[in-house]
UniProtKB/TrEMBL annotation:
InterPro entries: His_Pase_superF_clade-1, His_PPase_superfam
Name of protein: Histidine phosphatase family protein
Coiled coil: none
Pfam families the record matches: His_Phos_1
Organism: Aliidiomarina haloalkalitolerans
TM segment ranges: none
């Protein structure tokens, strides 16, 4: 008997509220992005058997927007299963730990100002600080400073895939609505990339982009099929293309 092979599509949430006190909310553009993702899936007649999502607000809101765009053309709505292990790591906690030795960053974190995501220079400056904070987190020299250390994050995303494996046994087309960190880590594990690849991958992932894996139900190995699909944000929909 041939082994059952399931396509698992990881979708990054829509644009959140970067630079705001409450990052964990979709922006109006983020809502539009995921509604368009749903419409794109419906137009392509891609069957959705089940959606797994993290339990962050931006994950829930993204699934709701996606399903609005997808509509009822495929009949009954797919089941939605909450899997907290698919949550993003706490980027603010990582930056707060890094800020212990950077007074200016501590002041900004205490009273954050909105980031102009249209400004390349401003975005690059924030991303450089974030990169340095993540390198500190990954180093293993300061694990006591974090509620979730780098090894614990690795273990959590591995557990997310184990939970997903249970859905793979029952479904053919599985969507996972998650964040850039777990997507990047999944790609790294599949391609056996080093830890320093995290930020390099993460900064290239578009909101509402697809990264697909082919998974056999009988084994935990994953074959990367595509990375960061974004053709649905081309042409007249190019205004929906964002990275943070």
């Amino acid at each position: 008997m041939a082994k059952k092979r399931t396509t698992v599509s990881l979708i990054r949430h829509g644009q959140a509220s970067f630079g705001q006190k409450n990052y964990d909310q979709l922006s109006p553009l983020g809502m539009q992005q995921l509604e368009h993702v749903g419409a794109h899936l419906a137009q392509r007649e891609e069957q959705i058997d089940v959606i797994l999502r993290g339990n962050l607000a931006r994950h829930e809101q993204s699934v709701d927007a996606l399903l609005r765009g997808y509509g009822s053309s495929a009949g009954s709505s797919p089941d939605v299963v909450e899997v907290p292990e698919w949550n993003e790591f706490d980027h603010r906690a990582v930056m707060h730990a890094y800020a212990q030795d950077h007074a200016e960053l501590r002041a900004w974190l205490a009273n954050p100002k909105p980031i102009d995501t249209g400004s390349r220079a401003e975005t690059q400056q924030v991303m450089q600080i974030f990169r340095e904070a993540v390198v500190r987190w990954q180093s293993g020299q300061h694990d006591a400073d974090y509620a979730e250390s780098w090894p614990q994050f690795l273990a959590r995303v591995d557990q997310a895939w184990q939970t997903t494996q249970e859905s793979i046994a029952m479904h053919q087309n599985v969507l996972v609505l998650t964040s850039g960190g777990p997507i990047s880590l999944s790609v790294m594990a599949s391609l056996q990339l080093p830890a320093e690849s995290l930020i390099s991958l993460n900064k290239r992932l578009v909101n509402g982009g697809f990264t697909r894996f082919l998974v056999a139900s009988e084994q935990s190995s994953r074959e990367l099929l595509s990375l960061n699909e974004q053709q649905h944000f081309g042409g007249k929909f190019q205004h929906l293309l964002t990275y943070i």
